[in-house]
Design brief:
single chain; about 375 residues; alpha+beta; Phosphatase 2c, domain 1; six-stranded antiparallel β-sheet; five-stranded antiparallel β-sheet; 9 helices
């Protein structure tokens, strides 16, 4: 095992030094020519010009070789980062149990495709369950909390029959993450005991939805913006009294999902993080999210993926690509087709009603 790792490390070093091999050989040849060749040591302007051109060529080759090696290394690191981030915040499947789903994210950190926002949608025996959340702060520093919450949701959504049970699982997973982070950051303070307040300033706002087969939508909201329902018009969906964000305060003893809407065929729910509505342009004006959604609703029914791209484009135009916070969007549209009751074909008679079962006389009836 150790020998294999050594060989891999040696091979990786050779690949990194490969682009520099030819310029280095040119440089060694130029130095040897200058020091050992009698012709190169002759005085005169032509020889000085030839020597300068030679060393300039060698220097240019070295610079281009280093640049090429760094470009290859950067491309490789970007490919690894993109693959890792796609696994962490994977795009939802386009269809879930008769629902069309699309999602997307814009990160405030340059070069990152994910940040402190999270989302997921899964089909379960209890309906399609959706989570969207926002970790305090943004960028790559918030990825630890994102991993903890998403990993817990992907398991709990299938195991817990009640939406409140899912939320408690998320809260416990985040608390474990904060305790482990506190032990790593302050090992001397936490030696031999659990930290009482692992990270008092870190919390996660979460919105949990459960869309049942009949279109009924139930919600649990922990300090997160409510969704919009898009049909022939756009309206904010009430999601009940907000609970405290996860990690800030303990959850109440009773957690009852709030029945907030009925999603009819063709209607869509638009979920977002507060980075969308809080985005500002150079003049300090907020992004008019509801107006953009209303314009989309006036057009023909927009597919969820197209709606996400449309809002992303409007956001980038409004902010000129300078986002102050991460933005996550998720759209769920009800594409379940209701089959109406079919009337009886003309000329066909309904089947005859079967006769009632015979009644057997009892002794009391015979005596009467």
């Amino acid at each position: 095992m150790i020998r294999t790792r050594t060989l891999l490390s040696y091979d990786s070093r050779l690949r990194r030094l490969g682009p520099l091999a030819l310029p280095t050989l040119w440089g060694a040849s130029a130095v040897t020519w200058k020091l050992c060749c009698p012709l190169a040591q002759q005085p005169g302007l032509p020889m000085r010009i030839a020597t300068s051109v030679l060393f300039f060529t060698v220097g240019t080759g070295l610079i281009l070789g280093i640049r090429r090696g760094l470009s290859r290394e950067l491309e490789r690191m970007r490919a690894i980062a993109d693959a890792t981030q796609r696994v962490l915040l994977r795009p939802p499947p386009p269809r879930l149990d008769g629902l069309s789903v699309a999602a997307g994210q814009l990160s405030a950190s340059r070069g990152a495709s994910v940040g402190g926002d999270l989302y997921e949608a899964v089909a379960t025996p209890y309906g399609v369950r959706v989570v969207i959340g926002d970790v305090r702060g943004h960028g790559l520093a918030a990825l630890g909390a994102v991993v903890a919450v998403l990993g817990s949701f992907r398991e709990a959504a299938h195991d817990e029959p009640e939406l409140g049970g899912v939320l408690r699982r998320l809260d416990r997973a985040l608390a474990r993450h904060l305790r482990e982070r506190a032990r790593d950051e302050h090992p001397a303070v936490c030696a031999g005991r659990e930290p009482e307040h692992p990270a008092a300033e870190e919390f996660v706002t979460v919105l949990l939805l459960e869309i049942r087969p009949d279109g009924e939508v139930y919600a649990l909201n922990c300090g997160h913006p409510g969704p919009y329902r898009i049909s022939h018009r756009v309206e904010r969906v009430p999601v009940g009294d907000p609970l405290p964000p996860l990690g800030a305060f303990p959850l109440p003893a009773e957690l009852s999902a709030h029945p907030c809407a009925r999603l009819m065929t063709g209607e869509a729910l638009f979920l977002h993080t507060d980075g969308a509505e809080d985005a500002r342009d150079a003049a300090g004006r907020f992004f008019a999210l509801e107006r953009v959604l209303a314009e989309a609703a006036r057009d023909a029914p927009v597919p969820p993926a197209a709606l996400v791209r449309r809002v992303h484009g409007a956001l980038l135009r409004h902010t000129r690509g300078r986002l102050a916070d991460d933005v996550a969007l998720l759209v769920v549209r009800n594409d379940r087709v209701r089959v109406p009751a079919q009337p009886a074909e003309p000329g066909l008679r309904p089947p005859p009603t079967p006769p009632p079962p015979p009644r057997f006389a009892t002794g009391k009836e015979e005596s009467d």
